[in-house]
Amino acid sequence: QTGYVTLDPSFMNTAACYSQITFVDGERGILRYRGIPIEELVRKTMFVEVAYLLVHGELPSEEQRRNFSTMLNLNSMLHEDMRHFFDHFPRGAHPMHILSTMINALAAFYPNVDLKSMEDDIDVSTARLISIVRTMAAFAYKKSIGEPVVYPRHDLSYCANFLNMMFDSPVRPYQIHPEAVRILNILFILHADHEQNCSTTAVRAIGSAQVNLYATISAGISALSGPLHGGANQAVIEMLQMIHADGDVKKFIRLAKDRNNPFRLMGFGHRVYKTYDPRAAIIKKECDAYLERIHYKDPLLDVAREVEEAALTDPYFVERNLYPNVDFYTGILYRALGIPENMFTVMFALARLPGWVAHWKEMIGGETKIVRPRQIYIGKTPAETAGVMESREL
Ligand code: SDX
Question: Active-site residues (predicted)?
Answer without folding.
Answer: 270, 327
